[in-house]
Amino acid sequence: MLTIKNLHAGVDNKKILKGINLEVNPGEIHAIMGPNGSGKSTLASVIAGKEDFEVTRGKIIFEGEDLDEVAPEERAHKGIFLSFQYPVEIPGVSVTNFVKTAINETRKARGQEDMPANEMLKLLKEKAEMLEIDRKFLSRSLNEGFSGGEKKRNEIFQMAMLEPRLAVLDETDSGLDIDALRIVANGVNKLRSKDNAVIVITHYQRLLDYIVPDFVHVIHDGKIVKSGTKDLALELEEKGYDWIKQEAVL
């Protein structure tokens, strides 16, 4: 589904990614871990097409298509979803209207009619129940006055409604208490299928107790320096990152 080859990228002439190679197949969950400043969030932003970052070398291939010249909104229409680490507040735009607009814009890009109102209502209700979201929440302005947990749950609600092929979750667990973490993780697990894939970016092994990855990759200094199973995340929890950094130098 996703192939990243020798990806180099940076911002303001600062090199951040220095040769990322990654393959993600349908049905897989990949966890990306690493110390602060290693390039995890930059990788998420570059996959989504954030224009602040410049790709200087390498390729991102999504479902056989080179994304080099593809705008962020087109990537979203093709099925790439990014859950933000710090979701922004949009006063005056309700959660429901935001999601409706996103769905219908994607349908339009695919040559489809707007989703009928009764179908949309049914989908909103079904996904809200799945994520234990109060219906009143859907009429609130997007992220305005939301707690950290509500913002992250809202990101997963958007993911549930949009049903992307590839979801990139950028530190969805940061700032969550254990109950909010469980609800968010359960939502991700319920949305998992053989046809979609998830990249989870996290600092902490605790999220991976709930969202069990098929593969764990460690980024250090802009490169993936080690890959393994969930056991690698447990090892990092126990030992920290220093041994990884030492291995990378050798």
From TrEMBL:
Gene3D superfamilies: P-loop containing nucleotide triphosphate hydrolases (3.40.50.300). The keyword Nucleotide-binding applies. Coiled coil: none annotated. CDD domains: ABC_FeS_Assembly. Residues 2-246 form the ABC transporter domain. Pfam families: ABC_tran (PF00005). Keywords: ATP-binding, Nucleotide-binding. InterPro entries: AAA+_ATPase, ABC_transporter-like_ATP-bd, FeS-cluster_ATPase_SufC, P-loop_NTPase. It comes from the Bacteria. SUPFAM superfamilies: P-loop containing nucleoside triphosphate hydrolases. NCBIfam families: sufC (TIGR01978). Belongs to the ABC transporter superfamily. Ycf16 family. This is Fe-S cluster assembly ATPase SufC. It comes from Robiginitalea aurantiaca. The lineage of its organism: Bacteria, Pseudomonadati, Bacteroidota, Flavobacteriia, Flavobacteriales.
